[in-house]
Amino acid sequence: MLILLALTAKLVVLMILNRPLGCDCGQIWSIPGQVVPNSRTALDPYSFQHLIFGAALIAVVRRIRPDWPVWTLLAAVVASSSIWEMAENLPASIALFGYSSGDPLAYDGDSIANSMADTAAAVVGALLALPVAGWVVGLAAVGAEIWTTAWIGDGFITTLARIVAG
Known about the structure:
This protein is mainly alpha-helical. It has one domain (about 45-165). It is built from 7 helices and no strands. The chain has helices spanning about 1-15, 45-65, 70-90, 90-95, 110-130, 135-150, 155-165. It is globular, with a radius of gyration of 16 Å. About 35% of the residues are buried. The mean pLDDT is about 90.
């Protein structure tokens, strides 16, 4: 029930924020440097970051609450991802990212398809992390952050630094 509630709340908030349904570009994947479909297509380079978020989150929650069943763990991932997606798409949050309009990584908010796919990526990451030791997930998260930052010039740490410096 929490999963359905979180996804419904996210859909309602994104609709209120007038987020587009998807990308009218005919693509489902956006590659680095494509400004127009960035965060509009279902998948983009940031999908990998959401996968890692789901893996890291479930590893942390499993450590704190080892008695929770898998469905409860997945509900925590969906709820957390949905809260992030709603907050990320608020105009004030978008402004915090500090991109100029000509920046190849320019962010103007997610489409509904992208936001839903981001949460699906977090769930996939969580499922992949279930049979793995927490330290392995942590190591994979650090490696993924380095790889993503090298690949697209952006990542969790880069974004945080830009917001703090902003």
